[in-house]
Predict the structure.
Amino acid sequence: MIIISIALGIILGFKIIESPKRMIDRMMMVHLCLFVISAGIVVTVNRTFIQHQDFIYIDTKRAHPLTHFMAMGMHGNGGYYRPDGAMDDKIKSPVARNQANVRLIQDRFRNFNGLTNYGKFLVQKQINNTADGTFGWGQEGTFLQLNNPDNTKLNRSFIRKMFANQGTVQANENFEYHFIVQLAWCSTLIGLIGVVNLHSWKIQFLKYSVVGFMLFLLLFEGGRSRYVIQFLPIVLILTSVGSTRILMRIWRNN
């Protein structure tokens, strides 16, 4: 929600700079009002539910600060790092916990020995963030179990051959599934090329949102394509527009 709000703010800022007398058109103002109202309702309902639910006890003092996820995003491939979580769990004070993570960020940045190496790390992390079209399917252990996993007849079906291996999700051992999904993901990314030269404020808003999410994954915990799922709807909207433009251009040329 924050990233989308920032993207919308940037669009509004450019609109005001572009035509300060007109400020913003009426339709854009309507969309802005609807967005603000919808966001307010979602945030209010979410906070109210959390404050009044009695399913679990939530101790906000034990929450990980943003600096925790930033420090984690600077280690290894930028993904989850269990020792960082263990360190935070041992520190009871929220202030001390945040300070410890700030020191960890500083140490890890120094270990890169300059902006050049840190830039190389971010390039590789971006590849890790977006390269896997399966979004990590089957890479989190064997916790995704199918019903009747030992059923020979079901295991021979097309669906199970595509998504599982002997009743258990195992994408790494299933070349057919990985190939087809990767092909679909590459087609999705190619479709984004079709919106590069579109300048309407709606498309610009979506593009800035995608860039914002990618920057977020670069600065914080990431390193795995499964994190793309959270802004995949925006990507799919853009690629549908871009793919349509590409196909129409090919059709006209033929």
Remarks:
- The chain has a mean pLDDT of 83.
- The longest helix spans residues 26-52.
